[in-house]
Predict the structure of VOC domain-containing protein.
Amino acid sequence: MPRALHHLDLWVDDVATAEGEWGWLLARCGWQRDERMLSWVHPDGTYVFVEHSPDQHGTHDRLRPGINHLALTVGSREELDRMRSESTDHGWHELYADRYPHAGGEAHVALYVESSEGVEVEVVVGE
């Protein structure tokens, strides 16, 4: 079966900050850095590319029309707990901390974090 998502371009204001934040998060979720460009590749071939474009304007607001958040997976609850304990050191702010790990419902195990530019990522323990 072909992958469902080919790639995602993230436009950021500060490439160096985004590289640190996203690089850490994606590596924890099993993505590998592609040294040819500022991107990370999932084992299924999907990739995420980070860039600053002179065409962008305004700031990201996930509450406006567009993408609200990105959801990624990790293999275990232990890995999710490690990500939670390390996320602040890598520029991420935890959302819904008082309801961790069930902010999405009792049967849903996930960590919700927000980047320094306000991009929300939900990290879900995969099947």
Q: What stands out?
A: The chain has a mean pLDDT of 94. The longest strand covers residues 69-74. The CA atoms of residues 43 and 75 lie 13 Å apart.
